[in-house]
Amino acid sequence: MSVENLVPYEEALASYDPVMGLEVHVELGTKTKMFCGCSTELGAEPNTQTCPTCLGLPGSLPVVNAIGVESAIKIGLALNCEIAEWCRFARKNYFYPDMPKNFQTSQYDEPIAFNGYLDVQLEDGETFRVEIERAHMEEDTGKSSHVGGATGRIHGATHSLLDYNRAGIPLIEIVTKPIEGAGSRAPEVAKAYVAELRELIKALGVSEARMDKGQMRCDVNLSLRPNGTEKFGTRSETKNVNSLRSVERAARFEIQRHAALLNDGRTVVQETRHFHEDNGTTTSGRIKDNAEDYRYFPEPDLVPIAPSREWVEELRAGLPELPRVRRARLQAEWDLSDKDMQSVLNAGAVEPIQLTIAAGAPADQARKWWMGELARRANETGTDLAEQPITPVQVARVCTLVAEGKLNDKLARQVIEAVLAGEGEPDAVVEQRGLAVVSDDSALGAAVDQAIAENEAIAAKIRDGKVAAVGALVGAVMKATRGQADAARVKDLILERLGVQA
Amino acid sequence: MPGITREEVAHLARLSRLELQAEELDHFAEQLDVIIGAVARVSEVAGQDVPPTSHPLPLTNVMRADEVRPSLTPDQALSGAPAAEEQRFRVPQILGED
């Protein structure tokens, strides 16, 4: 594999204007597949969730899943799309063993939803409108594993093995119109779009949209044209990018790679590319078939879908509060400035904070932990905040322990670290590590007496009425108890011993 | 004049991973040309008032409830497979050496 020639990012943008098209696949959270009653449960043994229909056996007939259609319409409505009055499924024919039927049931020129938009918020608070071309219904493919080659790669494999449990799981493919005018912010727009779309899908309740589980994945189409020109350049399509960070990195990498090719007077090959999480690069996949090579034709085994306007309006009326509206409400509830809310948003902390509050924590405490310790950790490890190995319920429990006076800030921090390190629930950590705040007078008494004895000069000042000096003694006790003492109680005890009224 | 060329048949054969001999290509090109011609004659008969259809029945919105039905057992599912391994369908090499 040759090392790609890259142009520095700023330099690439000085000469070229990126145009993107994003295709996002969302696996719906239905109980059954799109065209048969097989379960969609994850993690089942191979080929235990198949039937004659999803295996493409002769004589079987598909019937569409009503929730699949309903979910597609909801997504379309939430994306401000028009909903087709009449549309059909189509067969997309291709020769590859991931579909036992030898075609994928999809939609071609009659998508169920089309012509919409999604407004996304960039990191500086600016809003960018991404136009939606279409959202259509289709089905997922089976899972291949390649045997005999290096590290499971398809190249050099002697043969491949197929598990068709995933074949037929409902997918909605959401396709943007060409995204123009983003300039140097194109990678950021791509990331913000996928993030907003994920929030939207989750709010609709049609999928958990977990990118790490492949429930949502993004294909990044990107081309460059010389600044000031109109005509689109040749695009590459980076397939199945499966985290927000990777979407941004993939777009950035492709801009730099295309610019290098174009600067050298070479041409960009229209092809699919694979993104590599480990080093942020892409490598060549296959040369893409032309659309006509898929020999699309209307699926004769399925009848057309004609959603009545009554049904569509009913679904529209039932849409939940959408993420943008919800964020505005939460900002008011949490009493945050635009700037603070924007940082919460940029850190991906809206959801964790909201769930932590829902689990009983005060808003300021929930925000403090997610935006402090946990955001820092996510940053350091290059992971999404929501994927940290601690749950909002666990964070809320720590907040409660602090509120009850059982933990102080320093101890709480240790508990959080221990939970992150996999030591179990907060209460178990407190128990095992003996981290509870000591407020028992007999346990604190000795430490207080010692602190007074060792700091006679300070004690004398306090006796003379300089109550403010008590902080130094409290500090000494805290140090002696390795932070476990209840500071307020320690202060009371010291003042009591020295015969001073607080 | 609708029709299909020998080159188009060869291309379709490649997409379908069918290895056709030269004389087969000639033979199929001729046959497919006749079939396409016959279909084209139907299109000539159909006027503007006849909407294109992909389905003979006047039905729309046939849907099923999202309820799990029993699947095949893995043994049943794999019973028609030419080869199986680790409870999976085994297929020949997809791509050669890069």
Question: What does the model show?
Answer:
Chain B: Keywords: ATP-binding, Ligase, Nucleotide-binding, Protein biosynthesis, Transferase. Chain B: InterPro entries: Asp/Glu-ADT_sf_sub_c, GatC. Chain B: GO terms for molecular function: ATP binding; glutaminyl-tRNA synthase (glutamine-hydrolyzing) activity; transferase activity. The complex is a heterodimer of chains A (502) and B (98). In chain A, 38% of the residues lie in helices and 19% in strands. Chain A is built from 16 helices and 15 strands. A 9-stranded mixed sheet of chain A has the order 3-6-7-10-1-11-12-13-14. A 3-stranded antiparallel sheet of chain A has the order 5-4-15, with no helix packed on it. In chain A, strands 8-9 form a two-stranded antiparallel ribbon. Chain B has a domain of 47 residues: Histone, subunit A, CATH 1.10.20.60. The relative contact order of chain B is 0.08. The model of chain B has no long low-confidence stretch (mean pLDDT 89). Chains A and B meet through strand 2, helix 2, strand 8, strand 9 and strand 15 of A and strand 1, helix 3 and strand 3 of B.
